[in-house]
Design a protein that fits this description.
By secondary structure, the protein is an all-alpha fold. The protein contains four helices and no strands. The protein starts with a helix and ends with a helix.
């Protein structure tokens, strides 16, 4: 049992050292830095600089369009007013399709929302 126990202790000590070494920041720092340097070199030779400027702009425009769609779906805005490029400068937008806003329904929803918020505030205060 002596040799087996000694081997077990030695093996656990090796595992403990490996765990502590691999879980430190300073072990991974040179590896991460080298990966960063290699990524920069790869980008320097294989990625066009305009790509780095154009891709974020495309992503921003895509995000704005998705947000606009979400707002339209949430509030039931099916059609919007749009300006035509053929119209004169300073002209008012034309209605794009029929859009009717049910004011009474919107006011009722707003009042319900205010009541819910007051109830939540009262619950939080208690």
């Amino acid at each position: 049992m002596g040799k087996l126990g000694g081997f077990r202790d030695s093996f656990l000590e090796v595992l403990w050292i490996a765990k502590n070494t691999l879980s430190t920041f300073w072990f991974w720092f040179p590896i991460i830095y080298m990966a960063y340097v290699l990524l920069q070199l790869w980008m320097m030779f294989y990625v066009h600089p305009l790509t780095l400027a154009i891709v974020p702009v495309i992503l921003i425009i895509y995000g704005i369009r998705l947000e606009d769609k979400r707002v339209r779906a949430r509030y039931g805005l099916a059609k919007a007013k749009r300006l035509s490029p053929a119209r004169e400068l300073g002209a008012q937008p034309e209605p794009y399709g029929k859009f009717e806003w049910k004011v009474e329904q919107a006011v009722e929803q707003y009042e319900e929302m205010l009541k819910k918020e007051k109830e939540e505030r009262k619950r939080k205060q208690i």
